[in-house]
Write a structure and sequence with these properties.
It is built from eleven helices and 18 strands. With about 375 residues, it is α/β, with parallel strands linked by helices. Strand 2 and strand 3 form a beta hairpin.
């Protein structure tokens, strides 16, 4: 008897893989004049998988099919999305397969994501995969006719509100994504790719300043402090500090700002590429050394070395009136860490926020 997969390890499929499956199923219905219950498709990574066809309808020259996205254990707002494809026979264009975006698929309004302005937000690899699978199932049709494939996602506009598409200039729906076809739980590569794309889009607009934050809260605080910057200049890097700095450097961003709370800042200053709690532990001895520089007593610093949070360390220093000095040294430490990853000409700024949004310290160089 097979053991159940441990929670948090089950893989799923990308929107692109599901769209390709829907397109293949609709094409198969046209070619065979039968409604398929399942469809075998080839993923971009070369793997062949079987999808359940949830709905399918057939008319003389048109068929539609729907596949429900299963994202596995990945916390994706598109999990459960209905990826729907309508495939139409085109009489005067033999051997051609075209892919279009329907309701719920976003539309590109800004340069920088590798798609023309005005095009549906169906990325190149998923688009090619849709065409490949439609061609396989429509091999008997294509010598005489062309096939027009329209991908739609009911509720895609609603789902898009939970994504950062609007900052990338993608409106009215979600993106059809996926370079391999498989979704891995809490995918590091996917998050890094999102950061890279966001930086590129901002760069293409001519933006010379980017603000990297560690989450929605710090982003909101940073926006309040930098109201002059456009929304797409704010990028949530999460725990991926190194990836954010690398992208900024690659795209020649002239001014880079990092905004975070004390714990994440201490980890960045420590030199961590990834600040996730399970990836790297905070060195409280180092925090104690910063406290000593701020003027903390030996007893206070020894106590700080044994604590587990930076906020607790700050509370102890506050009793000696040294909290502000401590935070100022902390952000300076972060600036030094940033400068090692950015060109010498890049302007650097660091903002430290408290839980309530108060600015604890700021550093510019």
């Amino acid at each position: 008897m097979n053991k159940r997969l441990k929670k948090g390890t089950r893989t799923g499929f990308t929107t692109g893989a599901c769209a390709a499956a829907a397109g293949a199923a609709a094409t198969k219905a046209l070619a065979t004049k039968q409604i398929p219950k399942t469809i075998n498709t080839l993923l971009p990574n070369g793997q062949t998988v079987s999808f359940k066809v949830e709905e399918c309808s057939l008319e003389e020259k048109t068929a539609s099919a729907m596949v429900i996205k299963d994202a596995g254990d990945d916390p994706d707002c598109t999990n459960g999305a209905y990826l729907t494809a309508v495939v139409e026979i085109i009489s005067d264009k033999p051997e051609t397969v075209t892919v279009h975006g329907g309701d719920g698929v976003g539309r590109v309004t800004r340069l920088g994501i590798g798609l023309p302005v005005g095009a549906p937000a169906i990325n190149p690899i998923p688009r090619a995969n849709i065409i490949e699978n439609v061609r396989r199932e429509g091999a008997d049709i294509l010598p005489s006719y062309g096939l027009k494939v329209t991908i739609s996602v009911p509720d895609g506009k609603k789902m898009a509100k939970k994504t950062l598409n609007h900052r990338l200039g993608i409106i009215d729906g979600i993106s059809i994504l996926g370079t391999g076809g498989i979704v891995y739980p809490y995918s590091t590569s996917a998050y890094k790719a999102s950061i890279q794309q966001s930086v590129k889009v901002a760069s293409e607009t001519g933006t010379d300043t980017l603000v990297f934050t560690t989450g929605r809260r710090t982003e909101r605080y940073a926006m309040e402090q930098k109201p002059e910057l456009p929304e797409y200049a704010f990028i949530q890097m999460g725990d991926f500090f190194a990836a954010a700095m690398e992208s900024a450097d690659k795209n020649k961003i002239s001014r880079v700002i990092v905004a975070a709370m004390a714990g994440k800042l201490a980890k960045i200053g420590q030199g961590m590429d990834n600040t996730h709690a399970h990836k790297n532990r905070l060195d409280m001895d180092r925090v104690a050394a910063i406290a000593k520089k701020a003027g903390g007593s030996t007893d206070i610093c020894n106590t700080i070395a044994k604590t587990i949070t930076v906020s607790h360390a700050a509370e102890l220093l506050k009793e000696q009136g040294l909290e502000r000095q401590f935070y100022q040294l902390l952000v300076k430490d972060v600036a030094n860490s940033m400068s090692k990853r950015l060109k010498n000409s890049t302007k650097i700024e660091v903002m430290a926020f408290g839980l309530s949004g108060i600015t604890l310290a700021n550093w510019e160089q």
